[in-house]
Amino acid sequence: MRFVLAYTNDAAYRDILKKLPYQNRWFQITEGNYLLEASLKHKNYGVDDNPEKAHDPETFFKYYRHSNCHRLDRCFMIEEVGGYSAEQFELIFIVKYPLFLPLLQQELQRYNQLRCLKPHTLFFYGNIQDAEQSCAMIYHDQLDNPQATVGELMCTLEELYQGTDLTVALHRRITRHTDEPVENEEIILQVKVLPGSRKGTKITLPYEGSHFYGQPPHDLILTLDIAPHETYILYGNDLVVHWVLRLVDALAKCTINLKTLDGRYLKIKVDEVVYPGYELVIKDEGWPIGEGLKGNLRIIFDVSFPKTLSGRQQHSIRQVLDQ
Known about the structure:
Blueprint (H helix, E strand, L loop, with lengths): L2 E5 L11 E2 L4 E2 L24 H4 L2 H10 L9 H7 L8 E5 L5 H10 L17 H13 L7 E8 L1 H6 L1 E11 L8 E11 L8 E4 L13 E8 L5 E4 L2 E9 H5 L2 E6 L5 E6 L8 E4 L5 E3 L2 E2 L2 E8 L6 H11 L2
Parallel strand pairs: 1-4, 5-9, 11-17
Antiparallel strand pairs: 2-3, 6-7, 8-9, 10-11, 12-13, 14-17, 15-16
């Protein structure tokens, strides 16, 4: 998130766009004797039509916290200083009187969003050339939101294999006012899991994380995890199955029926003599790795030996194997 705080005495810059990261409200300061747009004035703050009272920092921040302006289509200051569009900056402050600068700086630092290569360039006095230089610095600096709520989303192997839309109930922390304790709020979210997702895949849901008073809503980052599966194990791009055969099936051919993760049934003929550890590879029945591409299905066999044999059975086996 980008913050720009400029100070100028030039009356040409008016009706500046202010996007305030506080409950998604907009804030606007106009040039001239009034710090605030007339429509925002409220009798409870004792401002009304007296511009001198509006110069008081405490009164200013009462408006700052409770403002509810409409979004403007253009940001003249940004347009003048380099042709940047308003969408390239999250928050613009044009302050006419220097006495507000320390309070604004303190307020913005509360958001814990000021992470520039040269943070001191965010706050400056001076003319429009100074503003242009600092705005350009911030424009080229790549910033991200350092605050995020993290969680874990457990999925079945079938859900990750095919992809799915999950409805999940989560809890996030919120504060509705500075003096109020932190609450746990339950939310219901729709989460889209793409086919072929893996354990450790991160899904970001913007602004769905914790909400703290005076801060922008946090993003919610969910990390996918895989619930244990009774049949399959994901190993790289391959699906691995451990299959136990009876001794007679291991020696005399057989056919096994294997249910796939997308609900199909594979009839797999085993024509070879199978020994413990024997591996059968079936191509293109593994994990999705791209459009029309899949890994392999690997079936690793074990053999179940009978615990006891009658004398007749032992004699018959010896006769067959000795031939």
